[in-house]
Design brief:
Helix content: 40-55%
Shape: globular
Strand content: 5-15%
Number of strands: 13
Largest sheet: 7 strands, mixed
Mean pLDDT: 95
Distance between the termini: 34 Å
Low-confidence stretches: 392-398
Radius of gyration: 21 Å
Bound molecules: 4'-deoxy-4'-aminopyridoxal-5'-phosphate, glutamine
Order of helices and strands: HEHHEHEHEHEHEEHEHHHEEHEEHEHH
């Protein structure tokens, strides 16, 4: 229940599904395959660097845009991986995670009544930040069972009120990685409608098989109208550090910076040199982690299949999706509510990411960024799904 004072603008802002499900996992002793965070640390040299920074007194406000070595490392990373050049002094901003970069960009560019085109399902902070800005989200369905972007539907989402496209690839929660044909269409529409694009690329390095992450900004005509956002949380398994960044043309990054100043002012001083070092020296670690995650994806997929859940194999991110209907559930929310009691496992219902609830109803998201033994234990527990539903419950109650 909201208080009588709660602002209409933040009506969608309640406890996030991730926080709620992680708390449920702790209170029920469940294996947590809900919230997306790894259960192992990032590169040891990065952790050492942060400890050393604290010991050396790097504990006061850093510069508003981030320390120079980190901005330089972010720009060098972009050049090395994608051939995209940014000036570390004017075109790079360090933020408090990708979440703040997204919020600051949306607040900087969206006026009340402006439309924001985004792939649906949407990551939860998109809805909240668009609401905060008074904007209107317009979803382009990447819906099951195919989970594919329909170009005609994408084109139909644009109108004279479209101000911004918010593009997430690799895409949470579906694991879809947009290909060159998809991106070419986004670019064509963005130029035709003269809109800005904010690209959420936090899973840029978590791509599998033959999938490749292609930043939209590499396409002709796009660099000047694109803000690229990423974060050390996913790339270096440090989701609690909240060091993210935004890259783009100086004028646009300046406008995002102006808003960021009044959200948090600056971000995590002692973590900044550590992330700078990880970006400069961590490519081999990142590649090893990517390969390991691909193995974990296949391990959990095989386990889910063994209990009667056919996974949609993601080409990116660290999330798998299954349809729960073969197990006699019509609804992923009901399934996820039952799961901790019935099996001692937590997962996330897709529905929380949709405006079109029907489209998300049967799907559930499973995080596989966990140690192999944790994934195996989850699958062992999920074997109870093979028992008749009522009997499973009765056994626990009785
Ligand atoms: N965008 C997407 C698609 C995400 O899944 C997440 C969660 N990592 C974020 C943004 C937020 O990233 P951060 O933790 O760096 O704020
Ligand atoms: N990005 C993470 C996920 O999708 C959650 C981050 C959060 O809890 N805000 O699971």
């Amino acid at each position: 229940m909201a208080s009588a004072w709660k602002a209409e603008r933040v009506r969608s802002a309640t406890t996030t599904i991730f926080a709620e499900m992680s708390a449920l996992a702790v209170s029920t002793g469940s294996v947590n395959l809900g919230q997306g965070f790894p259960d192992t640390d990032g590169p040891a040299f990065m952790l050492d660097e942060a400890r050393a920074a604290i010991a050396a007194g790097v504990n006061q406000y850093p510069p508003g845009r981030g320390i120079a070595p980190l901005r330089q490392a972010i720009a060098a990373h972009s050049r090395r991986h994608y051939g995209l050049e940014y000036d570390p002094d004017t075109e790079v901003l360090v933020t408090t995670g990708a979440t703040e970069a997204l919020a600051a960009a949306i607040l900087a560019f969206v006026d009340p009544g402006d439309e924001v085109v985004a792939l649906e399902p949407f990551y939860d902070s998109y809805a909240a930040s668009i609401d905060l800005a008074g904007g209107k989200r317009v979803g382009v369905g990447v819906f099951g069972p195919e989970f594919r972007l329909d170009h005609a539907e994408l084109a139909a989402a644009f109108s004279s009120r479209t101000k911004l496209v918010l593009l997430n690839s690799p895409h949470n929660p579906t694991g879809v990685v947009l290909d060159r044909a998809d991106l070419t269409e986004v670019a064509r529409l963005a130029v035709a409608h003269d809109v800005l694009v904010v690209c959420d690329e936090v899973y840029e390095h978590l791509v599998f098989d033959d999938a490749e992450h292609l930043p939209l900004a590499t396409l002709p005509g796009m660099r000047e109208r694109t803000i690229r956002i990423s974060s050390s949380g996913k790339t270096f398994s440090a989701t609690g550090w909240k060091i993210g960044w935004a890259l783009g043309p100086a004028e646009l990054v300046g406008e995002v910076t102006a808003v960021k100043q009044f959200l948090t002012y600056v971000s995590g001083a002692p973590f900044q040199p550590a992330v700078a070092r990880a970006l400069d020296e961590g490519d081999a670690w990142v590649e090893g982690n990517r390969r390991s995650l691909q193995g974990k994806r296949d391990r959990l997929a095989a386990g889910l299949r063994s209990v009667g859940l056919e996974p949609v194999l993601p080409r990116g991110t660290y999330f798998l999706t299954t349809d729960v209907r073969p197990l006699g559930y019509a609804d992923g929310v009901e399934f996820c509510r039952d799961l901790p009691r019935r099996c001692g496992v937590v997962a996330i219902p897709h529905q929380v990411f949709y405006d079109d609830l029907e489209a998300g109803r049967p799907y559930v998201r499973w995080a596989f960024c966990k140690q192999d033994e944790v994934l195996d234990e989850a699958v062992r527990r999920l074997a109870r799904l093979r028992e008749p539903r009522a009997a499973g419950l009765a056994e626990r109650v009785g």
